[in-house]
Amino acid sequence: MKFNKIFYIVIIILFSSKIYGQIASKVETQGQKFHYLINLIDNLYVDSLKVDTIVDNAISKMLQDLDPHSVYIKAADLKMVQEPLEGSFEGIGVSFRILQDTVVIMDIISGGPSQKLGILAGDRIVTVNDSVIAGVGMKQNDVPKLLRGKKGT
Question: What is the pTM of this model?
Fold first, then answer.
């Protein structure tokens, strides 16, 4: 009986190894195809281009085609994505949108610093720390960096 168990375990390991090897080989082959294409584009395309951007876009598109939850986060954006999860900052306690090139408060978080100061939905933020932010082409993603900091700052 012990021999049978060992025999089956060995067979399962060998079978699993063969399947893994086939999958790894297929992935490697497809990876080589992608690598070859990127090299062709980099060396032979008529216009100059940024290979990093092409690769990032290709990866993003591949993951987008999988499902709505799989996304590629570029290294440059990773810190911004991780920041809310790490909780090493505090905000002013508002949600906002940029309307007509001005930050407009949409809602106040109850009990937050903004509510204590009397800021209301509809208020506009035109300066932050003596720097004008209205009418200068501020992007939605740039504003949180300006409105966050260590508690009490």
Answer: 0.45
Please give the structure tokens belonging to residue 82.
């991780």
Return the number of other C-beta atoms located less than 10 Å from residue 150's C-beta.
Answer: 8
What is the identity of the amino acid at 132?
Answer: V
Strand partners, 105: 96
pLDDT in tens, 122-152: 999 888 888 898 889 888 888 888 887 777 7
Dihedral (Cα; 21, 23, 28, 29), 10-degree rounding: 110
What are the structure tokens assigned to 59, written together? Answer: 């990866």
In the structure encoding, which two tokens stand for residue 150, read together?
């260590």
The overall longest dimension of the chain from CA atoms, in Å, is: 82
